[in-house]
Amino acid sequence: MPAIPPAAPQRPLELALVVPTFNERGNVAELVARVDRVLAGVVWELIFVDDDSPDGTAAVVRALGLADPRIRCIRRVGRRGLASACVEGMLSSHAPYLAVMDADLQHDEALLAPMLAVLRQEPVDLVVGSRYVAGGGVAGWQASRQRMSQFATRLSQRLLRVDVSDPMSGFFMLRREVLEASVYRLSSIGFKILLDLMVSSPTPLRVKELPYQFRNRHAGESKLDQRVAWDYLMLLADKTVGRYIPTRLLSFGLIGASGVLVHLAVLRLLLAGLGSSFTAAQTLAVTVAMVGNFALNNALTYRDQQLHGWRMLGGLLTFMAACSIGAVANVGVASYLYGGHTGWLLSGLAGILVGTVWNYGATAWLVWVRRP
Ligand code: GDD
Ligand code: MN
Predict the structure, then answer these.
(1) Whether the predicted pLDDT of 50 surpasses 60
(2) pLDDT given for residue 1 in this prediction
(3) Confidence of residue 372 (pLDDT cuts 50, 70, 90)
(4) What are phi and psi of 94, to 5 degrees?
(5) Ligand 1 atom, smallest distance to 76 CA
(6) Distance between CA 179 and CA 284 in Å, rounded?
(7) What is the pLDDT of residues 155-192, one digit of tens each?
(8) d(Cα 351, Cα 329) in Å, to the nearest integer?
(9) What's the pLDDT tens digit per position in 190-218?
(10) Distance, CA 312 to ligand 2 centroid (Å)?
(11) Residues linked to residue 71 through DSSP beta bridges, in sequence order
(12) How far apart are alpha carbons 200 and 370 in whole angstroms?
């Protein structure tokens, strides 16, 4: 039998570029072409982490990967999330240097080689592509988005004592040791994986920022929406009080509090505006508040396992049933304490606490079940 000839010796893999994608089919081929050009002479691999994009991004990547084995696709089914996609992509590689970059060509690929040169030659752990150091900038952003970005940046700098001009950047390169050291502490919530990595590091990181111009999107649409802002607040919460309160519980509690306001508003509207009977008005107000709470929790607290279609309807009914038991527990505990001469405020708050924790636990278990 003829022996298989030994493969030509290869230089070892040096750089893995991780690109999260959701509906980016119009961008991946161009991205691959540009990366191939700017990283000539480097042994690299390109890992797309696609959350089962409905536009078929994964199929486009697969076709590219058949022609060029340096290109891979991790396709996650039933999952969403930019930060968690980046983490899983990085963990899947053996490369000593890891980079993260968006698929839509807003990040300047010409910066990849200089970033790698810094890590090779300088005592630096992390190189950040920055819009906010001299020479960097954003093209075509509305003033409102610019203000939002600056506000979010300042918030993290203040709250988390991060000393980097652009901690919101989605474009960076690091030594794999940085990931290994912080991986167990990562929150992996939302969009801001760089901030997460920096704050989760057990030792201060040696960071260098290189300027670049944030360009306009090549093809497709941005996924940045109001939920990204909520996720960002949850990331900040997790990084500050997360040791004491799980973020999902916090999110659930805040939405619950908003439900109380909705309830009172509906009640007042029905009583004053329509002259309904109190019982009818209260019943409708509870229903509206519950439906609203369910919708918000489904969209925000459990965004990563959001229910759709018939499952959503089933989820709503289960949610209402579980929360009714929570309401009974709430009233029971509060009445018991009040009967034992605890003040009304403390009794009421204790009831709310017990009810909320019950609702949270029961709905996490019954409504937003993680399906294997
Ligand atoms: N796998 C996966 N899952 N990828 C996602 C998801 C998701 O749920 N949501 C977005 N992406 C991918 C997009 O396909 C794109 O490649 C990249 O993440 C960034 O998404 P955009 O929708 O283009 O975000 P943006 O341009 O508004 O914001 C980006 O740039 C900012 C400045 O660097 C993000 O990287 C921000 O985090 C960053 O602050
Ligand atoms: Mn983008």
Answers:
(1) yes
(2) 65
(3) low
(4) -100, 0
(5) 1
(6) 50
(7) 888 887 788 999 999 999 999 999 999 999 999 888 89
(8) 7
(9) 889 999 999 999 999 999 999 999 998 89
(10) 30
(11) 46
(12) 26
Exposure string of 203-222, with b = 16+ CB inside 10 Å and e = fewer, is eebebbbbbbebeebbebee
Q: Identify the nearest ligand to the CA of 107 by its number.
A: 1
The CA distance from 177 to 124, in Å, is 12
Tokens for 337, please give them.
């304490």
Structural element, H or E, at residue 46: strand 44-50
| Atom of ligand 1 minimally distant from the CA of 193 | 37
Nearest to 82 by CA among 196, 205, 239: 196
Cα-only R_g, the chain:
25
Instruction: Name, in order, each residue with C-beta under 8 angstroms of 133's C-beta and a sequence gap of 6 or more.
Output: 165, 166, 209, 210, 211
Nearest 5°: the CA angle 91, 97, 103 is: 70
- Measured from the Cβ of residue 156, the count of other Cβ atoms closer than 10 Å reads 21
* Tokens representing residue 105 in the block: 């060509």
Window from 25-29, 59-63, 136-140 with minimum mean pLDDT: 136-140
Query: Residue 157 has what pLDDT?
Result: 87
The beta strands (E) that lie in 145-233 are given as 172-175, 207-211, 213-214
Could you identify the residue written with the tokens 């490369």?
A: 95
With the most atoms of ligand 1 within 8 angstroms of its CB, the residue from 75, 102, 165, 216 to mutate is: 102
Would you place residue 226 in the very low, low, confident or very high pLDDT band (cuts 50, 70, 90)?
Answer: confident
Q: Which amino acid is at 268?
A: R
Write the pLDDT tens digit of every residue in 311-340.
999 999 999 999 999 988 988 898 899 888
CA of 216 to the centre of ligand 2 (A): 8
Q: Which tokens in the block code for residue 72?
A: 């891979």
Measured between alpha carbons, how far is 315 from 309 in angstroms, rounded to an integer?
A: 10
pLDDT band at 283 (very low <50, low <70, confident <90, very high): confident
- How far away, in angstroms, is 217 Cα from ligand 2 center? 6
| Ligand 1 pocket, Cβ-based, cut-off 6 angstroms | 20-22, 24, 49-51, 80-82, 85, 102-104, 106, 168-171, 191-192, 222-224
And the tokens for 148?
């939002």
